[in-house]
Each structure stands twice: as C-alpha cells, then as structure tokens.
Amino acid sequence: MKQKIFIYLFVFTILLVLFQYVNSKRVFEDMNNKLEGYKTQLEKYKDSVVVLQKDIAEISHFNLERNEDAISYFENDGYNVGELIPFIKDELYKLNEVKGDHPVVPYAASIDRKMMINTIKMLNHKWIIADFSDGDYWGELFLTYEITNEKQLRFNLVESFLYPFD
Length: 166
Known about the structure:
The chain is of the alpha+beta class. It is 49% helix and 20% strand. The protein has a four-stranded antiparallel beta sheet with strand order 1-2-3-4, with helices on one face. The N and C termini lie far apart (96 Å).
C-alpha cells in the first residue's frame, strides 16, 4: 500500500513539474513577445522624439527667449530679460483695454465688439508678431517696438492683414 502511495505521489509530482514547466515556458514566451513589442514601440517613440526636437528647433529659431544676441542687447542696456519679456507682452495686452478703437490694430471691429490682441510672439529685440480678433474677424500684425531713453515702451505697426470673412 505504501508503495502505491509513493508511486501516485511520484506520478503526481511529475505531472505537477511538467505542468509548471509548460506554464512557465508559455509565460516566458509571452513576456518575450511583449518585450519585442515594447522595443519596437521604443524605437518608434525615439524616432518621434527626434522629429519633434527638429520641429521645436525650427519653430523656436525666431524666438526672443532663444536668441542670445537679442538677449545680450537687452542685458547690455541693464535690463533683466526674465522680467522685461513679460512686461512688454503685458503692455501690448493693456492696449486691449483702451476705450474706443484699438491703438495698434488698424481695422474696425464688428458692431458692439472690439478688436483685441490674442497672441503675441516676440521674435527678437525689435520685432513682434501678434494676432487679433473681435470674434468674427481676425488677422495678424507685424510690429516693431523700442524702449526709449526715457524707459518708455513704444510700438510701431509695420504691416497687418485681415483674413477674408467667409
């Protein structure tokens, strides 16, 4: 009787080990397949990151915050660029609050509306691009700016256009 119990235990143990081996092999192969998929995804993402970095470098080419010569221009005059850039943008946005027609936008707004500058991009130490809208009509501006000897900020409209209304 003892011998039959040992034989049954031995067979059961063999079956258990065989089951564990087959199951482990399947799990291992599944993990390898997932790992290969992750490696493929990683390569795809690395390629995407390279493309995005090139795009960012191209887009930020005309950007005051990345233009060392323009930054040096302000720093040589004793300005803190980290404070000056937001100040210039704020001064341009403050023109939206002026009563009547906008002092920079040369187009009239729709009835009961006002043209307002929405987005500002500072290209360098002299030029700004901005877009404006009144909700119905929209367009873009090319401005120059300067800080006078009296530390006053002056904007000058160089070019503008209004998109056609559909």
